[in-house]
Amino acid sequence: MKRISAILLMLAFSLVVIVANATSHRLHYSMLWEPVRPTPTKVVLLPMDIRVSEISAGGLVQEVPAWTKTAASNIQHGITEYDALNTELQILPSPRLSAEESAVVEEHLALYDVVAASAYWTTTLGGSGWQHKRDHFDYTLGKGLAFMKERTGADCGLVVIGRHQIATAGRVAGAVLGALFAGVYIPTSSNFLTVGIVDFASGDLLWFNYTAGATGKELTEVESADREVLRLMEDFPGVEAYRKFIAKG
Questions:
Q1: pLDDT in tens, 99-124
Q2: Nearest-angstrom CA–CA distance, 81 and 76
Q3: Most buried of 12, 23, 39, 139 (most Cβ within 10 A)?
Q4: pLDDT tens across 142-172, in order?
Q5: Whose CA is closest to 80, among 219, 226, 200?
Q6: DSSP output for the chain
């Protein structure tokens, strides 16, 4: 059975009002204050977890493999475009791993999903009681990926998880009629995307960013996927922006 993404479920069910130009990325505390941890300059793209599904009028969600393949290719294109445009971060392709290595990486991607969901909840939805986690962002996956540093020549890994739901014509029609005649909101197409950078040696989650909710942008369209990836990655590393964010409390 395929794993349900914790971070994307958290995003999907969060009723959050996003303030324009609000800081969505998060930074490990060691990258903010003296002695400052060096900003990563080289990362390796870890196997992406991208799925595109069709959602029916009755709410049945079913993955469409051809759409998933197209979306994954488009997101890869967006990452390549970012890599070509920026001068601060080099992105290496995913290496060929043994079956044992692949299993370890998959376990840590699943762990990242849970850790990122917790990080998102505490630092975005947690209110003033969780200000200390915004000030001292210190989430980690442990040291299980330390072998990847020697294996790839990179200090860090880039994690990408995405989900996209495309509504059938019947669901779109039902949403329109429900809104017009019953005042009922029926969600239609949506997409969620999260990217993170994990230090191989320590397991620390150094940086991550996410879409804040249902954007309706088509990951199956290369131009739209490019924009979504570039929008998320353009905040990297965003040190000064994050300092200002936590200073506001």
A1: 999 999 999 999 998 998 888 888 88
A2: 9
A3: 139
A4: 999 999 999 899 999 999 998 888 877 676 6
A5: 226
A6: -PPPPHHHHHHHH----PPTT----EE-GGGTSSSPPPPP-EEEEPPPEEEEEEE-TT--EEE-HHHHHHHHHHHHHHHHHHHHH-SS-EEEPPPP--HHHHHHHHHHHHHHHHHHHHHHIIIIISGGGGHHHHHT---B--STTTHHHHHHS-SEEEEEEEEEEEE-HHHHHHHHHIIIII-------EEEEEEEEEETTT-BEEEEEE--S-----TTSHHHHHHHHHHHHTTSS-HHHHHHHHHT-
The string over 191-226, giving b where at least 16 C-beta atoms fall within 10 Å of a residue's C-beta and e elsewhere, is bbbbbbbbbbebbbbbbbbbbbbebebbbbebebbb
Q: What average pLDDT does range 200-227 have in this prediction?
A: 83
Which phi and psi (to 5°) does residue 124 adopt? -115, -45
43 residue type, one letter: V
Q: pTM for this structure?
A: 0.85
| 47 prior amide bond cis, ω within 30 | no
Which residues is 148 bridged to in the sheet? none
Phi, psi of 164 (to 5 degrees): -140, 130
**CB of 200 within 8 A of CB of 154?**
yes
Closest residue by Cα to residue 195 from 220, 242, 231: 231
pLDDT tens for each residue of 27-71? 999 999 888 999 999 999 999 999 888 887 787 888 999 999 999
- Amino acid in position 32: L
- Taking CA atoms, 143 is separated from 69, 98, 102, 215, in Å, by 31, 19, 16, 35
